[in-house]
Amino acid sequence: MSAGINPDKATGITPENSRRSFIRNIAIAGASVGAGLISQSVHATSKKECSSGIATNSRRKLGELEVSPVGLGCMSMSSSSYNPPRSAKSMVPVIRGAIDRGVTFFDTAEVYGPFTNEEIVGQALQGVRDKVVLASKFGFKFENGQRAGRDARPAVIRTAVEGMLKRLQTDRIDLLYLHRVDPNVPIEDIAGTVGELIKEGKARHFGLSEVSPTTLRKAHAEYPVTAVQSEYSIMERSVENQVLNTCQDLGVGFVPWGSVVRGFLADKFNEYSRFSDDSRFASVPYYTPEAIRNNLVMLDLIRRWSDERGITPAQFSIAWLLAQHPFIVPIPGTTKLHHLDEDLGAVKVKFSSQELTAFRAEIEKLNLVGFRAKDSALTDK
Q1: For the whole model, what pTM was predicted?
Q2: Is 287 among the catalytic positions?
């Protein structure tokens, strides 16, 4: 599916309100404002400085799997979901640049492309594969090279993993996720199959994506789950209804996708943004013209908090996720190294408990449009 837009042109964005302009115009180096929030420069002048900020200062645990506090979601590099697919020639340097900056956690899936995303990631990780944690996902069936429903039967899982290993040019998947629940296959059968693949050395850890607390507990009872991946951001908070608590109870890590709401909290859109019918954005409930106009109040709030500290809205948004639980590892996606540098700057942002409470009180007052109902967290997606 083609994105159908030029995000900097067809959506009505001007240089004055883009995050690129924000980064250029704000003096971020050495900023330290507020009762407990400390922000350091997020634009290092060398690879050594970039790397030291994330590689040596912190690590997080997803279950027993140790990773960098922020990973890299690779979907947008080739999937045509929100922008035209990029070439391997242009994306391999981004992935290698992330490794240079201390990122050790990379996320892909067979359905991204389909298949082409894993090929790019596999190419980029040649020679450095043992230095990183590689996550991929199964759970869809394909016809004529396109997604055609869900299929997580044991035999299909095994075939999918063989394809992943070939495309990723590796002998194991470090974190093997069920991408979406197949209602026709008991979750215990899926967990058992992944457990067998782990015993065979073709995978190392088992993950689930967009599942309910009940499904998580059933799967975990069959084979230990290392991480759950679901949409979670300052604006999309439905997983705060029992999902995060269940992860905490079971010792399961949580990997948020959509940490900047598909670009909204990266200051990428405004009330004039419009999308062509074939754009993925056009089908997202919180990207209708009405929803955007209504939800800009959240962006204004985050701008105010981030402006006071000399950081960007994207950095504030990722840092907020990191502050919620120590077992959370966001995977913002990007196709540009300067955006990656911006995202990684969030690792150096710290909040006091008083600030978190005050900010939470402000966002709870907002009536956002287009996001999941609280009870939706109790059902599989």
Answers
A1: 0.87
A2: no
